[in-house]
Design goal:
The chain is α/β, with parallel strands linked by helices. The protein has one domain. Helix content is 38%, strand content 20%. Helix 2 crosses helix 7. It is globular and about 50 Å long.
């Protein structure tokens, strides 16, 4: 335990579980856009400052047998292209944006991990099938990171933080061949899936005031233009700033 191999295995297992959740809840994803905002929130207040948190990205290749294999080179390229797209996108977000320096980003890395865990819960219990929704939430986007975000505010001086998390997988040549052969026998085998979460967090309260998820079996982060398309899809209906 604790080795690079064991961490990769754990990450692969978690991703497989998420993919299963995606494939079983896609049918319940329609009509979710009216649920993107927390009660009482519509747009960013005038003169708001938003800190862009480092995106948590990892890419996988799917072997013929369905094993998810982390691809470091793909992940490195995806981080580069997605960050470039985000830098370009921030011009149209409708708010003043800032970024953490490398040292500060490292010091708050655990908050990114916390966000990922909470985002998975929101995707499952707020946007997922009705049977998985929590009665106590009454269908409202009512989730918070609490005091954990305080260091982000102190380091950035921002009012809000934009968190993003993406996992993407691609069928290998061998996997595609298996899919074709099995299809001849009437057996459907899934290929890759792109899963993303984006959250706008009020750094004064920790409340997630806007959330969006990306669940699809298309998309690509390994090319600049397609990475930009993924970003635009993930930030669809991002709240503008009050005039």
């Amino acid at each position: 335990m604790g080795t690079k191999e064991s961490r990769q295995a754990a990450a692969g297992l978690l991703y497989r579980l998420i993919v299963v959740l995606v494939l079983t809840t896609l049918c319940g994803a329609t009509g979710a856009q009216d649920k993107n905002r927390a009660p009482g929130f519509s747009v960013l207040p005038k003169n708001s400052k938003v800190v862009l948190m480092p995106t948590d990205i990892e890419l996988f290749s799917i072997s013929a047998g369905g094993v998810l294999e982390p691809k470091a080179d793909w992940t490195e390229a995806a981080n580069k292209y997605f960050k470039a797209a985000l830098v370009e996108k921030k011009k149209s977000l409708g708010a003043t944006t800032v970024e953490l320096n490398e040292r500060d980003a490292d010091e708050v890395a655990e908050i990114n991990t916390l966000h990922a865990a909470l985002a998975r819960s929101i995707a499952q219990h707020h946007f997922g099938m009705s049977a998985l929704q929590l009665p106590t939430k009454e269908g409202k986007l009512d989730w918070s990171l609490g005091e954990a975000v305080r260091p982000v505010k102190e380091k950035s001086g921002a009012d809000y933080a934009l968190f993003s998390w993406i996992r993407d997988s691609y069928a290998s040549g061998e996997r595609v061949a298996s899919m074709i052969v099995l299809a001849l026998f009437g057996v459907g085998v899934p290929g890759g899936a792109q899963i993303g979460y984006a959250s706008l967090v009020d750094l004064n309260t920790g409340q997630i005031v806007w959330f969006n998820r990306l669940l699809r079996q298309t998309g690509d982060l390994r090319e600049p233009a397609k990475a930009a398309e993924t970003l635009n899809s993930l930030l669809e209906n991002f709240p503008g700033q009050q005039k």
